[in-house]
Amino acid sequence: MSASPDQSEPLITATDVGLRLAGQAVLQGVNLTIPPNKVVSLIGPNGAGKTTLVRVLLGLIDVQQGTVARKDGLTVGYMPQRIALHPALPLTVMRFLSLSQRATEPAIAAALTVLRIEHLQDQQLATVSGGELQRVLLARAMLGEPQLLILDEPAQGVDLAGQAELYRLIGEIRDRSGCGVLMISHDLHLVMSATDEVVCLNHHVCCHGEPEHVSSDPAFLELFGASVSEELAVYTHHHNHEHDISGNVKSEPAED
Predict the structure, then answer these.
(1) How many domains does the chain have?
(2) Secondary structure class of 24 (helix, strand, coil)
(3) pLDDT tens by residue, 105-126
(4) Which stretch of DSSP H or E encloses residue 118?
(5) Which terminus of the chain has fewer CB atoms gathered within 10 Å of its CB, N or C?
């Protein structure tokens, strides 16, 4: 990826966004800015309106209150939470990626290389592991060098070690391209250490800011509980080794 967004202009700005569906208030007075070159994580309980807000940000649902401003010509790559795939469908990873309108052979090759899954290109998509499938979906979202990546539960079905590696790769992609990243997640532990800004949503923005600030915010503690904040302190650190896609250690810790 080699996109170079204007680092001074927000990619998306939502101001006082409100939405009612079936007579229920789904979003209330939401303010949110997604800048380039930052990872923003949208967290909150199930039913908090996270997916609905993303659809509003992308213009898939019209706002009933407030405004959403998108950067002119904004290009977006989207990674879904899951895909429905019949196990008997003969579809290789390469063929799946080539179905994207943005697919070119160099773009696919670059995405596979960045995500370290070149060895999967001829494998049947139905036979890849959960962690491998998430990387394939991320590779597809990267095609076309989008200015904004939207990742819906990117670590779905991935074990703890695989999650850490996946989030590290997402940060690497951001660093390489300067793109903005909006992640939707309810897994707090690793996402809190892999993001620049956290937005805690429960129909309205309960709190937002850097992970260390949000994890001690009274609104966050009320929503998730003080015990979660204590657990997060254990997880917000850096390892001195790396894991591969299957969770195996790739390199040993350096000796003191």
Answers:
(1) 2
(2) strand
(3) 899 999 999 999 999 999 999 8
(4) none
(5) C
